[in-house]
Every structure is written in C-alpha cells, then in structure tokens.
Design goal:
The complex is a heterodimer of chains A (91) and B (420).
Chain A lengths: L2 H15 L14 H4 L4 H15 L14 H12 L11
Chain B lengths: L6 E9 L6 H10 L4 E6 L3 E6 L11 H6 L2 H17 L19 E7 L4 H12 L12 H5 L3 H10 L5 E5 L4 H14 L5 E8 L5 H9 L25 E2 L1 E9 H6 L6 E10 L9 H15 L8 E4 L5 H15 L6 E4 L1 H4 L6 H9 L2 H4 L1 E2 L23 E2 L5 E8 L3 E8 L4
Parallel strand pairs in B: 3-7, 4-5, 4-6, 10-11, 10-14
Antiparallel strand pairs in B: 1-8, 1-9, 2-3, 6-8, 9-15, 12-13, 14-15
Classes of the chains: A mainly alpha (91), B alpha/beta (420).
Chain lengths: 91, 420
C-alpha cells in the first residue's frame, strides 16, 4: 500500500463510521475531530476496523498518532506497506 | 386516597409487519391482510416471521442508526410518530422548549420481552471469526445491550430529559409501558408519557431456536397462514418485530390544548400465575382480567371487545380460551378477537400493537376479526369470537386488551371511548 492508498483506506473506514459526513474536503494536517463529527466511540471504531481489515493493532498509547490524516499516514504506512488496500465497503 | 387524574391516549406511533402507522395497520386488520413473510436468520434458516419495513432514516441520521440497535430504531420511529400524531412534536431548534410540554417532564417507558440478545449473538459471531480474540469485541456492546437502550435512544434522538427506561415483562410487557406511563402521569411525575412496547426479537436466532426446541415454533408452507390462533391446525408461534408507543396525557391537559382523544385508560391489572416457567395458567389469566375489570369499575358485560393474547400454540390457546369463557361467557354483547394471526407474536410490542389496532373501533364500531381460522378448534370455541370477517357493533365503548408472558406474568388494560 502506498501512502496515498493509506489515505484512501482511512477515509473509507471513516465513511463507514461517519456516513453522514462529507469527506471530500478533509485537510491532511488538521485534526480529524475538528473537521468532522467524530467522538471517542467513533475513534475506537476506526481502531477496530484497522484491526479487522488489516490486522493492525494500535495500542492505546499511540491513539494520538492518528489524530490527523498525515499522522495516520506517518504511523500506519510502515505497518500497511506490505498489505494491499481493500475497502471496508467491499469487505 | 385522593382521586387520581384521568389519563387519555392522544397519539399513536407504531410499526408492525402489516403497517407503519395506525391508519395503514387498521386498514389491513379490517381487510384481513397479513404481514407475515418468509424470513431467514443464521443457524435457524428459513422460518415465517413478522418483519417491519419502516424507513429507519426518516427520524435518524445514518450514524445514529449505525450506532444504535434495531429496538432503538423502532422506538425512535414510534416516539416521533406518536408525538406528531398527538400534535406534540418537539421544536428541533431548541432543546429547552416544546410545543406544550417540557422535555424534562416527558417520560419514555418501553415494555420489552428481552433486550440485548441480538447484539450479544452478533458479537459472539464476530469474535468467533477471529478465534475468540476479545480485542475484536465491540465497545458498543454495553450501550447497545443495557435494558434501557430502546427508551434511552429515544431520549438521545429527541433531547428528552425526563425518566426513560424499559419494563421487562416477557410477552406481557406491551401493556406495562402504557400502565407505567399512566401511573407516572397520575403521580404527577411527568406531564407527557410515551408508553408502549418494543420488539427486535426476530434478529436473535436464540428466540426462534428456543421456541423450536420447545416444539412451539410455527411451521407452514405459506407464511401468511402460519399464525392461526384458535384454528385446529395451529402449530406454534410466529415471531415478529415491531413497536407501538402511545402519547399519554392527563385528561385535563389534553382537553386544555384541544387534543384528539383516542381513548381513556379506565383501568388495568398485572399479576402472576406463580405456577410455571413457561406454561400459562387459566386461573392467573382469569384473575388478571377480573382485576382489570374491578380497577375499571366495570362488569364483564360492559366490555365490547376483548383482544386475546393467543399465540397460536396448541396448549396456550386452549388455556386462554378457558379463562376468557370463565369471565365473558355470560356477556352476550362482548366480542372477542386476536391480532397475532396477522402479524405474529411481536413479543414485548404485542400488547401495545394489539391495543392500538383496536382503538379505531371507537370511531368505526368495527371489530377486526382473527384470520386463518379454517377450522375452529372446539376447545377454543368462544362466544362471539370474530372469525375471518369484521363485525359491526352498535357503539363501541370499551376494549379489554390482554397480554401474558413467561414466568407467569399477566397484564390487562381496559380502555374506554372518551366521554365527559
């Protein structure tokens, strides 16, 4: 998975969790929770989907690394580099 | 004891397998239209069931629906519709104001047979895919399975801040929400109550499997014929989902705002058989009906319509028929019917839905029949049992609605046409 595909993967998961939100204009460096309505339970859903779809375990101490899309890429790309993208909507 | 306030029904919100509001539901009850269909659920396979087809996104956002439960979605549908029907819809722009009543003085009381089985089964199914690694167990499990979930989701959806919880009463629960709502109004603890019953039970395979293990799950090649109370060929229960919440107000408040009044809660009774986990008891049922009549200060002869609980099981229907005969066999003008023949057994919602389906009798004086009686079981023969075609009566004034449940709980409610 490329860095761009990591963004696609994360956005796809968020689209499942926050289906009422428009994700087209998400900024990479702004906190996700400042751009769309996401609460702590939603965040746990994102972590759960990463676990189910890609087998990635994100320990609680690292949750803050996923606060922005660019943070997600930085943290997740090394873990997803050898995995292929498959969107949650098709899973 | 001080005279208690009179309580009236001023709104009805419902979803049933054959109708998503009271007019549609009633039309189908008069026309003999069943809502039972072929249904499939994991581990059980194909089985007849009562399935609701309401628009879950009419009153909820996608995210709210995703996070909540089926019972919550049904409750939200019913609550919003009941408020609209009563002319009491809250102003969505301001959580502190309402058209007539404050959100802090509004209560939500949902009768439930069970709650939480759906989510628990689903989560076990999920973690089984991952070798029972509990890191895959959802953090949504607890808020979805707490017993107050169906009522609580209504408060989240509408910003209600009064008391909101469930009343667990097996299949007698549909009357309990209404009864408790009336009591809370009479105690002066709320000004508006949304009370009734809710069922998501078709989404748990355990209910079907348990009835099947008990030999009490209906089987029929034609699903609309599967639920057939009092018929000689009946062979079990058709499980259904659904819900009905009534908007309840004190009579004086309802009159002051010029509300439409569907009927007045004249009395009720809840008791226990104290005899068996599963088998009903005619004496307990008889005592429950007599208790509701006494509470209403009415005689059996004063009741125009008795809506039975009969679930289409071989033994249960006979026991209930025996109880009804004891109370009403000497009441020449009392008609008896059943609603499960159309929708199956909506569990915790059954009592509320079945009462709702009969309320329009106060307007049209028609008693809806019980359908699917091709050959009446002589052991279920009842005076004035309305079979397959509606009956017009002179002037309907009273309905007695019964619901019974496991562990021997019985509930009966008497509702009257409103008169000054």
């Amino acid at each position: 998975m490329t860095q761009d595909e990591v963004v696609i993967a994360i956005k796809d998961i968020i689209a499942q969790i926050a289906p009422d939100e428009d994700l087209s204009g998400l900024e990479m460096d702004l906190r996700l929770r400042e751009q769309i309505e996401l609460d702590s339970m939603d965040f746990l859903d994102i972590v759960m989907e990463l676990r189910k779809l890609y087998g990635v375990q994100v320990p609680e101490k690292d949750y803050m690394e996923l606060a922005t899309l660019s943070g997600c890429v930085k943290y997740l790309h090394p873990l997803l580099e050898k995995k292929s993208l498959h969107c949650a909507q098709r899973a | 004891m001080a005279e208690l306030a009179r309580v009236v029904i001023t709104g009805v919100g419902l979803t049933s397998p054959n109708g998503n509001d009271l007019p549609e539901f009633r039309r189908n009850l008069i026309a003999g239209v069943s809502g039972v269909e072929d249904y499939s659920i994991r581990h059980v396979g194909s089985t007849p069931a009562g399935v609701c087809h309401f628009d879950t996104l009419r009153y909820q956002g996608k995210k709210e629906a995703r996070r909540g439960t089926r019972a919550g979605a049904i409750s939200i549908w019913c609550a919003n519709q009941a408020l609209e029907d009563a002319g009491l819809a809250f102003d969505s722009s301001d959580v502190d104001s309402a058209a007539h009543y404050s959100r802090a003085r509004t209560g939500v009381f949902t009768g439930i047979t069970e709650h939480g089985n759906v989510e628990t089964e689903h989560q076990i199914h999920e973690v089984a895919q991952y070798g029972f690694d509990l890191s895959f167990w959802s953090h949504h499990h607890n808020p979805r399975t707490v017993a107050n979930n169906p009522a609580g989701e209504v408060t989240l959806n509408l910003g209600i801040r009064g008391p909101a919880y469930s009343l667990g009463g097996a299949c007698a629960a549909g009357n309990l929400g209404l009864i408790h709502g009336a009591q809370m109004l009479q105690l002066g603890l709320v000004d508006l109550a949304l009370g009734g019953g809710i069922s998501e039970s078709i989404h748990t395979f355990g209910i079907f499997a348990s009835f099947r293990a008990q030999g009490a799950l209906a089987r029929h090649t034609d699903p609309v014929k599967a639920s057939r109370p009092f018929d000689a060929a009946r062979n079990g229960i058709v499980v259904a989902e659904g819900g009905c919440l009534f908007a309840l107000e004190r009579l004086d408040d309802a009159l002051a705002r010029g509300a439409r009044i569907y009927g007045e809660v004249l009395g009720y009774h809840v008791n226990s058989d104290g005899t068996d986990f599963v088998l009903p008891d005619a004496t307990g049922q008889e005592n429950c009906m007599r208790g509701a009549l006494a509470h209403s200060k009415l005689a059996a002869e004063d009741i125009d319509v008795v809506n039975t609980h009969a679930t289409s099981t071989p033994s249960g229907d006979i026991i209930e028929a025996e109880a009804v005969r004891k109370v009403f066999d000497h009441a020449p003008e009392t008609f008896v019917n059943n609603t499960k023949s159309y929708i199956g057994h909506a569990m915790g919602a059954a009592g509320a839905l079945e009462l709702a389906g009969n309320l329009p009798t106060f307007e049209d004086n028609l008693v809806h029949p019980t359908i699917n009686v091709d050959e009446l079981d002589p052991a279920c023969a009842l005076r004035n049992l309305v079979i397959n075609e509606p009956v017009r009566i002179r002037r309907a004034k009273t309905i007695l609605n019964m619901s019974f449940g496991m562990l021997g709980i019985n509930s009966a409610v008497v509702v009257g046409r409103y008169t000054v």
